UniProtKB/TrEMBL annotation:
It comes from the Bacteria. This is DUF3500 domain-containing protein. Residues 1-24 are annotated as: Disordered. InterPro entries: DUF3500 (IPR021889).
Length: 423
């Protein structure tokens, strides 16, 4: 079951508006040097933007349908793909740092800092090294760890999302110490050369990636990738664009569904604020449910399931899943796709919004072993009050207890009697 990109079946390139709205009032948020000072915000945004801190304090359970993870979904296995290049790159990066820098650049594998991340701007002083503060050789060494861990497509998407953050700063000509290409914190967890589990986190605005290596297995979840806007036509980052496939393949699958099936999956025909309940109409989370601070989200499956789809529709749903799995190296992507295919009858899909070439929308693919969300948002730094196609958020989770590789880590430590923790 290949996850390679097939140009003959690729979705059409979604159109991008010729212009984006003017930015909001300059300096409207208390953001200085990459930190958001939430105590200076009004109560509602302050509460929403500190969700990660509250969520990290809860004992980890995982995203579940009813509060209890379904057992037996994840298993230790030998993929035959040892992460030699990633280990070597991580060791080279750590060796390039001064001893005092390593104290915050590398944390224990069981550190609670794994779960402290935000797709907005951190409201705390993050651990790890801020890429912008590193010398160019050291920053390139950090990026090399990511490049060695992800697929070519995955690394390119992460870098494009980072560049689009810089493009946003140029576009609105504001927050010049925060909306940059390298205002991201990179942290290594564990000892890469020890043979024991290890991993890394990249965290910042619109870019949150967690990679965990357990033997020859790789878990990449949670992942939050987004951009406002999704393309740039001028300036230093001209030609950069992202999320065409996540948008286009979502539309392709939606358009394969019939009017008779709409009662099973269509939650609303609009994502305009007036057409949604208040909890789904805010500017911070929009429609997505599994963002920062929601590690223990209780989310009963809803929508049409794989057993209700035609064979053609099932293939298109798996094509949509492939878009997100192509961020992993192929051996891991194909194994994960096989896992999703095994649970296809228990995989559910929902949609909000229209499905023409312009309108904003939301979709969710909810498998027992994979949760995907896509959402178009209103402007945060730009002035559009309603969701727009050019502001995208995407989320990948491993529900039932395997975000951050925690289920597999617990199995590893139990099997090998190795001191460690799954919290």
């Amino acid at each position: 079951m290949s996850v390679d990109h097939n140009p003959d079946t690729a979705p059409p390139r979604p159109g991008t508006p010729a212009s984006v709205p003017l930015p909001r009032a300059r300096g409207a948020m208390p953001v200085v040097d990459g930190i958001l000072h939430a105590d200076l915000l009004p109560p509602e945004p302050a509460f929403e933007l500190t969700a990660a801190i509250r969520g990290q304090a809860e004992p980890y359970v995982g995203i579940t349908a009813d509060g209890t993870p379904t057992p037996g979904l994840y298993r230790l296995d030998d993929t035959g793909h040892r992460p030699v290049a990633a280990v070597e790159a991580a060791e080279a990066y750590l060796a390039s740092l001064a001893p005092y820098e390593r104290h915050v650049a590398r944390l224990p594998m069981d550190s609670p800092q794994w779960r402290l991340w935000t797709n907005a701007i951190p409201t705390w002083v993050p651990k790890g090294m801020r890429l912008e503060r590193l010398t160019v050789p050291r920053r390139e060494a950090a990026l090399a760890v990511m490049e060695a861990s992800l697929s070519r497509e995955g690394y390119a998407l992460v870098r494009d999302a980072m560049r689009l953050n810089g493009a946003l700063g140029e576009l609105i000509d504001d927050y010049h110490d925060t909306l940059t290409e390298f205002t991201y914190w990179f942290t290594v967890f564990g000892e890469p050369t020890s043979g024991e589990p290890w991993g890394w986190q990249l965290m910042g605005h619109h870019v949150d990636v967690h990679c965990v290596f357990i033997g020859s297995q790789l878990v990449m979840a949670p992942v939050f990738l987004g951009a406002e806007p999704t393309s740039c036509d001028t300036g230093r980052y001209a030609g950069t664009r992202a999320f065409d496939d996540e948008t286009g393949q979502g539309l392709r699958f939606r358009r394969s569904l019939t009017e008779q099936q709409e009662s099973s999956f269509l939650l609303s025909r609009s994502v305009a604020a007036a057409d949604l309940p208040p909890e789904l109409a805010g500017p911070w989370n929009g429609r997505h449910l599994a963002g920062a601070g929601r590690d223990n989200l209780i989310l009963p499956p809803e929508g049409i399931n794989g057993a209700e789809l035609t064979a053609v529709q099932q293939d298109l749903l798996l094509d949509l899943v492939r878009v997100y799995l192509r961020r992993l190296p192929s051996v891991h992507a194909e194994r994960k796709l096989e896992d999703v295919a095994r649970h296809l009858d228990d995989t559910h899909f929902v949609w909000r919004g229209g499905h023409d070439d312009i309108c904003a929308f939301y979709y969710r693919v909810h498998s027992p072993v994979l949760l995907l969300e896509y959402d178009n948002h209103p402007g945060v730094f730009l002035g559009n009050e309603e969701p727009a196609r050019y502001h995208v958020h995407t989320i990948v989770r491993e529900p039932n207890g395997n975000d951050y590789g925690k289920n597999l880590l617990a199995q590893h430590y139990a099997a090998h009697h190795t001191p460690g923790s799954s919290h």
